[in-house]
Amino acid sequence: MEVGEHMLIRAGCDLVEIKHFQERFELSGKLLLDRIFDDVEQELLAGKIDSMAGFYAVKEAFAKALGLGLAGEGRVRFSDIMIRKTKKGAPYVLWSDRLSAMIPQVSFVDRQGQETERGFLLDSATVSISHDGGYAMAFVVLSLIKEEEGYGQSEEG
After folding, report:
1. CA distance linking residue 35 with residue 75, whole number of Å
2. Number of compact structural domains in the chain
3. Which residues contact 7 (CB under 8 A, 6 or more apart)?
4. Domain limits at 21?
5. Is 18 a member of any domain?
């Protein structure tokens, strides 16, 4: 399988100022949490502002990697991206069936600046989160494959 013809690798990153996220949280409280994070994520976050900023950055980075953006018509919803942790505490991402259905309609730009064919499926996502110096940063790498090559993972819902 040649990368570019049957497979795409996409990356996205996001940087969040923790203080800014804390200010937003202080203004909106539970409303903000419920808008951005599902119940499982809120349990994992346990009220830690730096972790909240990191999880938010993951969702932004994921949407950027897809080139779709967050919120709004035809865009990724916060609820489409679900962050979980392994038993060892490493973050990983699940995505909704809604998002899985959207991705084959997305075209990407190749290294020659040409729009690619549509019909790619999200196969896997890798995520890294870091907090330091008052900032939370997330980096997401997505692997997409041509529709006829295989199927991505999703969480029912």
Report:
1. 15
2. 1
3. 1, 143, 144, 145, 146, 149
4. 7-149
5. yes
| Tens-place pLDDT, residues 106-124 | 777 777 887 776 788 889 9
Q: What's the CA gap between 13 and 57, in Å, rounded? A: 8
Residue 30: its H or E element: helix 30-36
Q: Is residue 103 part of a domain?
A: yes
Q: Name the pTM for this structure.
A: 0.85
The string over 54-68, giving b where at least 16 C-beta atoms fall within 10 Å of a residue's C-beta and e elsewhere, is bbbbbbbbbbbbbeb
Q: At how many degrees (to 10) do helices 18-28 and 49-66 cross?
A: 100
In angstroms, the CA 156 to CA 78 distance is: 16
| Structure-block tokens of residue 59 | 């969702």
